[in-house]
C-alpha cells in the first residue's frame, strides 16, 4: 500500500557550523573590528558588554542577544565591573527568514536559554576544540562523540531562531551608548595602552604588536590617541 505524505516546510535551515565559543571576558577586554562572510550571534549569559555595529554602539545586559549579518563590521568590549560570560556562535544559513535578525537586539526567554545551554553542552560533547579558545575559528570533531550530538546542536539552534522570530521581542533600539560613556571607554583604552607601553619600554614595538597584544584595531587605537592632548 502506497502512502504519500507532505514534504515538511523548513523555514530556517542551518547550512554549517563554523565556531562555538563560551567565554569569560576580562573587565578590560576590547576586540578589534571584524567582518565575516557568515552569520554570528553574541549572547550575554552574565554581566554586560558594549557592542559596536558600524558606527553605532549598544549596551547589552544579561539575557540580551545580538545578531550580525554577513559582511557586517562589528566589535565588542567590556565596560562593566564584573567579568561577563558570553556565548558567540558563527554559522552559515541562507534561509530568507534570517532577514528578520538583521541589526536586531533581542531578549532571550527561559526556553531559549535552555536551548542555548543544550547547544553548548552538545558542542562540548561533539568537538575537541575548547569553547573558551578565542582564536579557534574552526571545529575539530571528537572521535568518541555521543550519538547525534551535532544534530542536537543544529536542532537547538534552529528552534531558538524560530522561537525568536515568533516572539519578535526586540529590545529597545535606543540603548545607544551616550557620549560620556564612550569618552570614558576611550580613556580606559588610552590608560591601558600607556601602561602597556611603559611595561614594554625595552622592546622595539610595532603598531601591529600594540594592537595584537591589547586586542584593539588600528583605527580604534589611532582614534583614541588622536583625541588626547599632545602633552599627555
Keywords:
single chain; about 230 residues; alpha+beta; Jelly Rolls; 2 domains; three-stranded antiparallel β-sheet; 5 helices
Number of helices: 5
Under CATH, the topology of the largest domain can be stated as: Jelly Rolls
Helix percentage: 25-40%
Radius of gyration: 20 Å
Structural class: alpha+beta
User: At the fourth CATH level, what is the homologous superfamily of the largest domain?
Assistant: Regulatory protein AraC
The total beta strand count reads 8
- As residue ranges, the low-confidence spans are 177-181
User: How many distinct folded domains?
Assistant: 2
Largest sheet, spatial ordering of strands: 1-7-2-5-8
What is the H-and-E element order?
EEEEEEEEHHHHH
CATH architecture of the largest domain: Sandwich
First-residue to last-residue Cα separation: 85 Å
The outline comes out as elongated
Major sheet characteristics: 5 strands, antiparallel
At the first level of CATH, the class of the largest domain is: Mainly Beta
Portion in beta strands: 15-25%
Average pLDDT level: 84
Quick recap of the structure?
The chain is α+β, with helices and mostly antiparallel strands and 232 residues long. Helix content is 32%, strand content 21%.
Task: Describe, in plain words, how this protein is organized in 3D.
It is a single chain. A 5-stranded antiparallel sheet has the order 1-7-2-5-8, covered by helices on one side. The protein has a 3-stranded antiparallel sheet with strand order 4-3-6, with no helix packed on it. Helix 1 runs antiparallel to helix 2. A hairpin with a 2-residue loop joins strand 3 and strand 4. Helices cover 32% and strands 21% of the residues. The protein is of the alpha+beta class and 232 residues long. The protein starts with 15 loop residues before the first strand and ends in a 6-residue tail after the last helix.
Amino acid at each position: 500500500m502506497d502512502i504519500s505524505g507532505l514534504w515538511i516546510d523548513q523555514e530556517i535551515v542551518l547550512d554549517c557550523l563554523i565556531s562555538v565559543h563560551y567565554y569569560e571576558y576580562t573587565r578590560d577586554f576590547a576586540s578589534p573590528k571584524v567582518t565575516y562572510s557568515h552569520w554570528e550571534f553574541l549572547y550575554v549569559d552574565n554581566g554586560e558588554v558594549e557592542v559596536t555595529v558600524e558606527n553605532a554602539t549598544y549596551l547589552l545586559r544579561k539575557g540580551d542577544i545580538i545578531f550580525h549579518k554577513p559582511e557586517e563590521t562589528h566589535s565588542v568590549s567590556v565596560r562593566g565591573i564584573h567579568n561577563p560570560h558570553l556565548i558567540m556562535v558563527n554559522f552559515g544559513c541562507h534561509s530568507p527568514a534570517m532577514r528578520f535578525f538583521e541589526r536586531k537586539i533581542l531578549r532571550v526567554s527561559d526556553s531559549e536559554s535552555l536551548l542555548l545551554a543544550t547547544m553548548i553542552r552538545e558542542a562540548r560533547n561533539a568537538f575537541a576544540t575548547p569553547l573558551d579558545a578565542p582564536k579557534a575559528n574552526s571545529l575539530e570533531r571528537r572521535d568518541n562523540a555521543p550519538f547525534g550530538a551535532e544534530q542536537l546542536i543544529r536542532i537547538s539552534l534552529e528552534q531558538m531562531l524560530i522561537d525568536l522570530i515568533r516572539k519578535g521581542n526586540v529590545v529597545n533600539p535606543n540603548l545607544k551608548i551616550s557620549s560620556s560613556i564612550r569618552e570614558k571607554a576611550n580613556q580606559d583604552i588610552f590608560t591601558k595602552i600607556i601602561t602597556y607601553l611603559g611595561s614594554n619600554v625595552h622592546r622595539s614595538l610595532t603598531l601591529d604588536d600594540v594592537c595584537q597584544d591589547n586586542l584593539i584595531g588600528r583605527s580604534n587605537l589611532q582614534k583614541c590617541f588622536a583625541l588626547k592632548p599632545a602633552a599627555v
